[in-house]
Amino acid sequence: MKKVHLAAIVVAGVMAMYSCGGSATQTETASAPTTPGKATGDAVYKKTCITCHQANGEGLPNTYPPLAKSDFISDKEKTIAQVIKGYSGELTVNGKKYNSAMPAQQLNDEEVAAVLTYVYGNFGNGGTTVTADEVKAVRGKI
Q1: Which CATH number fits domain 36-141: 1.10.150.120, 1.10.10.10, 3.40.630.30, 1.10.760.10?
Q2: CA-to-CA distance for 110 and 22, rounded, in angstroms?
Q3: Is the pTM value of this prediction over 0.70?
Q4: In DSSP terms, which residues pair with 61 in a beta bridge?
Q5: H helices within 61-141, ranges in order?
Q6: What integer pLDDT is reported at residue 29 of this predicted model?
Q7: Separation between Cα atoms, residue 118 and residue 12, nearest integer Å
């Protein structure tokens, strides 16, 4: 009977760990040093943007604007600044009004460049590249 209880406790512990998003592998990976220049846009998007803008880049209707086929991101400098500074208030994307907030993202220049290059290269946005030097220049202006 004690073995059954021990097994149940172990299973419950494993289930709790995974339901909270944690795992031994994640803990080990999180403590490992990372090289900012190696951040991929996809990884940064999944970590930082996906909750609001969704996996398909279409956002959440009436709440978070789409990045997919977005006319709002046509101004690269403004888009870079928005990622760095965040944004609050009304904006119009693809003819629809949104009034929510996007917090400033705590990303370095390489990560901002990587994620915006990913966004521009996916979701039907035409494939513009953003460089870390462009991000650094915008950061210096704001």
Answers
A1: 1.10.760.10
A2: 27
A3: yes
A4: none
A5: 76-85, 109-121, 132-141
A6: 34
A7: 39
